[in-house]
Design goal:
The protein is of the alpha+beta class. The chain has three helices and six strands. The longest helix is centred in the first third of the chain and has 9 residues. The N and C termini lie far apart (71 Å).
Length: 112
């Protein structure tokens, strides 16, 4: 299996080191990472082992992306699933007048 390596930038790594450990899906910001090549390995742990013996081992916070696009972030306890952060889409403002009459009619109903 081919894994794409995403190395965490040093500025983001310092904050990552001091953040409280959370389990579950990690959210990673693409701006905090740099593409760093590929590694052929049987699993994420095999990739970690291969890179550990090389000149650029995986560090805590680095991400491996498998061929299906699944992200695995290296943490102190092993690998956990991750996903790239995507901003929520901004709500589209409704054209003037649409919906305004609905709120006006409901608030002007007589009270009994």
């Amino acid at each position: 299996m081919l894994f794409r390596i995403h190395r965490m930038k040093e500025t983001a790594r310092e904050a990552f080191r001091w953040a409280a450990h959370t389990s579950g899906l990690a959210i990673a910001k693409p701006k905090d990472y740099e593409a760093a090549g590929d590694v052929e390995a049987a699993s994420a742990y095999d990739a970690w082992k291969q890179l550990r013996d090389g000149d650029r081992p995986l560090n805590t916070g680095d991400i491996l992306e498998d061929e299906s696009g699944t992200l695995l972030i290296a943490k102190y306890i092993g690998f956990e699933r991750a996903q790239w952060w995507a901003p929520e889409p901004k709500p589209v403002p409704s054209p003037a007048g649409i919906g305004a009459s609905d709120s006006a009619t409901s608030s002007s109903a007589p009270a009994h």
